[in-house]
Amino acid sequence: MRFTKDIEYALMACAAMDDQIKPISAKEISRRFQIPYELLSKILQNMSAHNDLKSIQGPKGGYVLNKTLEHLTIGDIVLALRGDKSIADCVSIKGGQCPRFDKCVISPGMIKLQKIWDDILFNISVKDFIKNEN
Amino acid sequence: MRFTKDIEYALMACAAMDDQIKPISAKEISRRFQIPYELLSKILQNMSAHNDLKSIQGPKGGYVLNKTLEHLTIGDIVLALRGDKSIADCVSIKGGQCPRFDKCVISPGMIKLQKIWDDILFNISVKDFIKNEN
DNA sequence: CTATATACGATCATTTTAGTCTTATATAAA
DNA sequence: TTTATATAAGACTAAAATGATCGTATATAG
Lengths: 134, 134
Fold this sequence. Notes:
By secondary structure, chain A is mostly helical. Chain A has six helices and two strands.
């Protein structure tokens, strides 16, 4: 799975939300990292819809983390922004499977690799990911 | 990194090239797996250019493996078809780096994750990937 | 010579990604 | 209660990647 801009932006935004107390607005994050505001808004709304964040409307509002950065994983973010889209069409459940699935030579391997990848993503916290020591 | 059709087709093609003796043509592979012929041809040419395969022109020609399937890895195939494109723009060397790279909060994590992913890909042989036992 | 094969560049269609625009709604504070 | 600031959400557009096709050249076994 490729980490496109939305994932990058989501991770940067998380880095700006290091506590669960003071909300930070999309505008402020957008300004700090030079991320297009409307695009970032949608990303944060998605994360909010998946309960990674909590949104607070109105002045002094913004977003706060629902979990600590230690407990929020890369997998959580990917799941929020990509859904359960798999590493290959070959293995995807929705959207009509491959016509050769029953006699497919690659799907067993893809399924195994998908599991390995998921295990990695859901075992790296955003905290670990963004800290720049070592 | 997402496994798009070209990677899927390449893996299927490899499954059809289980020995290093008798060449198999793109046409035959295309027919066997219902893969568009011209597209498959380019994929095989790419793999050939990267020395994963050897091509033999003329009648009774086709492609043969340069390594055994035990020694050919998923990473080799990805490398042949994707080049050294990384898991995120953030970390890619070519094509002008991210303007925020020097003070980037996510690039160290991306680099680490890239390495983890590469290690996996270059340690799974095509043989292991396509065998459907267990 | 001919049929069969790879080599390769150009082109086109579709899908995904990235970014923009607009309108509606919630709410803190003057 | 008005105003400024914020999220919510859908439509839309542009650009890039992916998937597929077409045409032509070249190599070679028989």
